Amino acid sequence: MRKDMRTVVHPPKLSDQVYGLLKEDLVGDVFSPGQRLVEVDLAKRYGVSRTPVREAMARLSREGLLESHERGYLCPLDTQRDIVDRLEARRLIDTQIARRAAHLAKPEDVVQLQACFDDEKKAHEQDDITAFVEAHQALQKLLRITSRNALMAQCAAMVNDSFQLVRNQIHENKANREKTLECDGKLLDAIRASDQALAVDIMNTFIDSLHDYFGVEKPS
Q1: CA 109/CA 132 separation, integer angstroms
Q2: Is-contact 64 76, C-beta < 8 A?
Q3: Which whole number is the average pLDDT over 175-180?
Q4: What one-character-per-residue DSSP string does 190-213 give?
Q5: How far apart are CA 134 and CA 145, in angstroms?
Q6: Which residue positions does the secretion signal occupy (predicted)?
Q7: What is the pTM of this model?
Q8: Residue 127 Cα to chain centre, angstroms
Q9: Which domains does the chain have, with CATH numbers?
Q10: Of all residues in the chain, what percent carry a pLDDT higher than 90?
């Protein structure tokens, strides 16, 4: 075989493209909680047949972003139990992401995290909710990368996506944005100082505040 031969890169499958578009719409508040999603309507929206829509919806259901229903799929309506379960998962995973980031962050990682935090702070000062959420998400993604554990990062991303459905609603409130900004700033300082214990404490305190926001009991 010739050494200069190259493998053809196939374009993304149609169902993968629909998956990406539908996921963006779900986390972007295009659909309302409890709303039934109809295959034919989504096929028209994305300009495709029903088959890739069906495949994308099944995939999103497995990830917890859609709820299977006898007549198709619904945008999930979170129960108190759902919220408690997600917060418990976040506490288990996000604290370890923070700890590993504080332990393993390189100087260039800190520079990138600081840039995301600066964008987040600027968006808050300008009262730009969309930009704030985007900057916060970018910072969260960098934290997962900095943890240098691909499987843990994948789990964290899945839990994070499940919370994205209510994140815009949470951050419409200026006080909530300030709490998020405060947490991210303190966490960045802990990472810069390589203080693993402090990073874990900061995440635990923030998740406690989410329990208060949702009005659900904290773990004993």
Answers
A1: 20
A2: yes
A3: 95
A4: HHHTT-HHHHHHHHHHHHHHHHHH
A5: 17
A6: none
A7: 0.80
A8: 21
A9: 14-74 (1.10.10.10), 80-214 (1.20.120.530)
A10: 69
In angstroms, the CA 218 to CA 220 distance is 6
Q: Which residue has the higher pLDDT, 21 or 2?
A: 21
- Angle value at C-alpha 95, between 156 and 116, nearest 5 degrees: 70
Q: Which amino acid is at 41?
A: D
Spatial neighbors of 201 by CB under 8 A, at least 6 apart, are: none
Measured CA to CA, the distance from residue 87 to residue 219 in angstroms comes to 10
Beta strands in 19-78 (DSSP E): 36-37, 67-69, 72-74
Nearest to 118 by CA among 177, 184, 173: 184
Closest to 191 measured CA to CA, from 128, 99, 122, 75: 99
Hey, how many other C-beta atoms are within 10 angstroms of the C-beta on 181?
Answer: 19
Q: Which two tokens stand for residue 167?
A: 């994140």
Distance CA 220, CA 210 (A): 15
